[in-house]
User: What shape does this take?
Amino acid sequence: MTQNLSCEALRDDLVALLYDDGDRDERTRARDHIAQCVPCRAEYSELKSVRKALGGWTLPLTPSLPKPQTRVAVSWFPAGLAAAAGIVLGIGVAVMTLGTFSKAPETAPVAASAPTSPAATAQFVSYNEIQELLKQQEARHQAEITELRQTLAQVTETAPPSASIRSVSAMSPSAFESLLKASEARQARMFEARLAGLRNDSELQRQYDMAQIAAGLAYIDSRTGADAARTSELMKNLVRVTAKPQDR
Amino acid sequence: MLNRSQMSDEQLVEAFQAGHVAAYDELVSRWQGKIRGAVWRVLGSTEDAADITQEAFLRAFRGLKAFKREAKFSSWIYQIALNLCRDSLRRKKGKSYVSLDEPEPQIPALPSLSPSPLELSEGNQLAERVRQAIQKLSEDQREVIILKEYEGLTFAEIAETLGLPTSTVKTRLYRGLVEMKQHLARDGVTSASSIHDSNES
Assistant: This one.
């Protein structure tokens, strides 16, 4: 395609005309230009056909791209983002709670499966209101935790003491001291045994290394001797071959 | 007080920043479909699109308090999503390296570049060819074409989203379209003769 410099310079204008976007002047310039420039007119047509082809690529239908949710789409948040999603969910639940139970917020149930429809049109709530709700929820939780702790304490009190568990604080000082000594003696014995094992291992390793060195030296000696004998034999042969017949 | 659906993005952002957290609901429902579509087109993967859209909206939620309303919310959320797309593509490129120690290195399979019989059926064939051609474009050109063709953003909005001058946006668009023309012509999808001068406006 043969295009001169002015055609190159008008490419942006051509794009503006193609998309009917940008300055009006740009589009006018491009329109005037393609009216008289055959290559640019052809290119403009080609680009329009490309745009037409691009329009053939549509998004896949559901379920690949489901309809957007009316609320923050907590359901499709990955597990790794659960904490942040929890915040969003908590806020959402708090908003629902206000909208649905505005007259008695302290009795509002907090559940992930709360209904969504009427709350969706509820008016905005401030952070302070949400904070208040969260405080109430926290207080309820604290009360439940206290109750559970009390129940647990009762269960522990009524349970029979375990024979295998003895409290150190209940022992006499002499018994504690004897236990301590026994423990130290046990640890000393273990340490001695381990040290003896290490010593044994070290001696065995030393003997093995010495044997290896001796074998290596013997090999070198034998090789050296053999090489010397072989060299001597070769020299003798060489002398014999190169000697004059009368000297042989 | 205005119903949330009647409020502009700017008003919703303002409401959110004033403490009305529920305003974010409307922003999400208003934009998640568009963002997900754009991400899907850039990446060519539905699963990745879902994950990245989630991540984009989570990041936006975290950052919306500090969002300066000089830019449009839509440009900002597109920007976040496209940055995540670029990261994802970069990670995938990194994963495509093959160890020299492997006795028989396997060529990583390109995701569904070979269309299935269903995809090649009437109606899907063009879409598949276009998808393939777009995947062959450079990242820069692909983003601009997707934002313009499928998201309907203006040059100025694209420039704001990508942080580029408008002239660069138009140049990338032009070059992308020219490359698309070549790829599609190779596949026999379009030719210069398919559109007549009579269609011009």
Observations:
- The domain at 113-189 of chain B is CATH 1.10.10.10 (Arc Repressor Mutant, subunit A).
- The radius of gyration of chain B is 20 Å.
